[in-house]
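Notebook B, p. 112. Complex prediction, attempt 2.
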Amino acid sequence: MLGFDVVDLGPADHPEPGDSAPAFTRPLVTDEFWEDRSLAALVEEHDGPTVLVFTPMTGSFLAKYVWDELTARDWDERVGQVVGLTASTPYEVTRFLEDNDYPFRFFADPGNEVAESYGIAHDLDGMTGISEPRIAFFAIDAARTVESAWVATDWPEFPDYDHLETDLGLK
Amino acid sequence: MSETAEPPITFYRLQGCPFCERVARLLGEYDLDYRSRFVEPMHSDRDVVKRVAGVRTVPVIVDATTGVTMAESENIVGYLETTYGDSDADRPDAAAASAGGGD
């Protein structure tokens, strides 16, 4: 099926449904500017679940595959609030949003500490000193409680998007 | 909950821009609550600043308390001093600000 080898990342010790999503503040990047925002404020101001989507660095095909899929599935319109997070700088995220015309906002976390706090950090083989998130989806309610979670256990591994949409109540 | 309250001052700035840093210093000096919105180096990528202030230069501040939107660091420094400063204070920043406007 896949034309390349898949690395087993093993299970991640990530927040499960019912757990509190770890709090953080990072620059939130739009196509026009970035400013510090806290996850708590973001989920609180929105009526309905926020889906926090972790992907590898911008520029990787892994990130592009995920965001192309979510754009094609109109998640910006069908899911209340979708927010990306990756281990790239705000400048790189801005370029990624513009180049691909993605209708989403991203937290920029070049140090990858947020992924670390969610238990989904992945140290890249052959890129010493660089860590990025596993592909992961967390649906979070307004009180910052995790409602559903999907985390890759292989690298690369993409979710079953239809299944994800069922979990999110989109089907 | 203070974390979710919007600060009254929105400060459009460019990383490393000396004119912006001058405004940041003064905001800090007056202990004003503000949020920083960073824009890109290319003027053509600054539609938000154009929309808000009519120019593509930064710094720009939007002060919801007074309803003032202002560009050019010299003007902003003067505005902050007049609005929030102690007029008797001897502030070297005020003199320095007249040297330039923005980036």
